[in-house]
Amino acid sequence: MSPRVYMLMPLLAVSQIDAASGQEFPVKPIRIITSESGGSGDFVSRLLVQLISPSLGQQIIVDNRPSVIIAGETVAKAPPDGHTLIAYGGTLWLGPFLRASPYDPVRDFAPVVMASSSPCVLVVHPALPVRSVKDLIALAKAKPGVLNYGSGNSGAITHLAPELFKTMTRTSIVRIPYKGAGPALNDLMGGQVQMMIATSPSAAPHIKSGRLRALGVTSSGRSALFPGLVTVAAAGVPGYEAVAYTGIFATAHSPAAAINRLNREIVAALARPDVKQKFLDIFVEAVGGTPEQLAATVKSEMTTMGKVIKDAGIREE
Question: Which range is least confidently modeled, 16-30, 74-88, 146-160, 246-260?
Fold first, then answer.
């Protein structure tokens, strides 16, 4: 046997081991760490468990952790074998801008797939004399510091989305903070605050009933959730986008074969028409895509919203 053949044999052996490892994954139960019960991450995780566990041939355990700090640290420190995942929203990658964090959202996680997205809706109290985004901007500029908006906790999307709106429109609108988005929405309907950029599930029934007036949806393009509603971007704020995402990640340095297998199984599940409808029923859209696309979205959000957080001096309360 020639020396060259001998040199190739170790490389062939390594490639065969890698292929076998990819075929063997998963070799034990998979754990998905996610947000509190009833949240979007919990919904996504539990639905996917039913769909992909049989094809993966392993039990999948949903582990609810209401603290993103604990959830993120747990996954960051897990063995990098693809068997520990995290399904969380933007607080996972934007949280480190708001507080000291025990993990780095880029260094410590391997993107798997973007599971879902849900745009927010710019809504106002019906008594406010505006019927479009341009009307609202004009009123805010005519009366700087007079208009106000309700929001949930510091750093939540109901806080960051209006701050991004203010930055991009160069308007002065006063934040009225609440301990959650629910109380803020209630006060908006009661007329105690004038506007809000609310999540789709919370705003939809009140838009339908007429208790709130919707001016625009915050996705980059028209949304299947609000097919008749113009985007804020098209209605006067070009480039504006503020979406609630749920991404699925593994521990950094997990094998590529494991990441690819998980991605294939989850994307196939998300593409099913019945699954898409289940998502739409709770005002969320199934996404899918590649790990690279998830990484790009996270990077874009960290750039855009990270700047908003820094410029506004926002810190976790």
Answer: 16-30
SS3 of 275-288 = HHHHHHHCCCEEEE
Are 108 and 172 in the same domain?
Answer: no
Q: Are residues 51 and 158 in the same domain?
A: no
162 in Cβ contact with 151 (< 8 Å): yes
Is 225 within a domain?
A: no
Question: What band does 316 get if pLDDT is binned at 50, 70 and 90?
Answer: confident
CA 192, CA 194: separation in Å to the nearest integer?
A: 7
Q: What is the pTM of this model?
A: 0.89
Tokens 């410590």 sit on residue: 108
Sign of CA dihedral 177, 180, 183, 187: positive
Q: How many CA atoms lie less than 13 Å away from 184 in the CB half-sphere? A: 28
Reported as a single tens digit per residue, the pLDDT across 236-289 is 999 999 999 999 999 999 999 999 999 999 999 999 999 999 999 999 999 999
Pairing label, strands 84-88, 30-34: parallel
What is each CA distance from 156 to 41, 82, 198, 199, 241, in whole angstroms? Answer: 15, 29, 11, 10, 15
Q: Name the residue with tokens 């993103």.
A: 68
Residue 71: give its domain's CATH number: 3.40.190.150
Tally of domains in the chain: 2
pLDDT (0 to 100) of residue 23: 55
To which residue do tokens 């109901």 refer?
Answer: 158
Statement: residue 311 has pLDDT above 50: yes
Residue 182 lies in a domain: yes
- What per-residue confidence (pLDDT) applies to 14? 40
3-class SS shares of the chain: helix, strand, coil, % to 5? 45, 20, 35
Domain hosting residue 137, numbered range: 119-217
